[in-house]
């Protein structure tokens, strides 16, 4: 089940929404560098670990009138979801990230991030 979009919760989504609402084709290769640089700027503002540029990797595809942002690793998937883990290497090596009540996993084949609630006792 999806979630209703809320403004100002995820700066990556907000930025892309502004571009799309202004009529930009965010899958256009001419915008690729601009989007990448803006994402790096967002990460620089919100992240304490300054090695994010080594791991930010995604592509944007267009299907009819829909856009799909495809992360190529778990860190990018988490960032684009508004989550910023501290220990990059552990997250990349395990392809999972635990929170207080759940675990995110990234499927490298499908490029999908899933979340599973972990019951605490």
CA-to-CA gap between the ends? 26 Å
By secondary-structure content and strand pairing, the structural class works out as: alpha+beta
Treating each run of at least 4 consecutive H or I residues as one helix, how many helices? 4
Domain module tally: 1
SSE order, as H and E? HHEEHHEEE
Strand numbers in spatial order across the main sheet: 3-4-5
- Uncertain residue ranges: none
Q: Care to count the β-strands?
A: 5
Please indicate the percent range of residues in DSSP E strands (runs of 2 or more): 15-25%
Helix content: 25-40%
- What does the average pLDDT come to? 89
Radius of gyration: 15 Å
* Biggest sheet details: 3 strands, antiparallel
Principal-axes geometry comes out as globular
How would you characterize this protein structure?
- The chain is of the alpha+beta class and 121 residues long.
- The chain has one domain.
- Helices cover 36% and strands 22% of the residues.
- The chain is built from 4 helices and 5 strands; from the N terminus they run ααββααβββ.
- The strands form 2 sheets. It has a 3-stranded antiparallel β-sheet with strand order 3-4-5.
- A hairpin with a 3-residue loop joins strand 3 and strand 4.
- Helix 1 packs antiparallel against helix 2 (29-46).
- The protein starts with 10 loop residues before the first helix and ends with a strand.
- The model has no long low-confidence stretch (mean pLDDT 89).
């Amino acid at each position: 089940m999806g979630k209703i979009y809320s403004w100002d919760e995820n700066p990556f989504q907000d930025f892309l929404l502004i571009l799309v609402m202004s009529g930009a084709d965010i899958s256009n290769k001419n915008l690729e560098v601009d989007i990448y640089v803006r994402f790096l700027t967002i990460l620089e503002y919100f992240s304490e670990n300054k090695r994010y540029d080594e791991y930010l990797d995604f592509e944007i595809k267009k299907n009819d009138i829909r856009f799909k942002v495809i992360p190529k690793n778990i860190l990018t998937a988490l960032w684009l979801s508004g989550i910023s883990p501290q220990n990059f290497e552990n997250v990349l090596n395990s392809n999972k990230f635990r929170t207080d009540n759940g675990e995110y996993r990234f499927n490298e084949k499908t490029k999908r991030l899933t979340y599973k609630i972990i019951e605490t006792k």
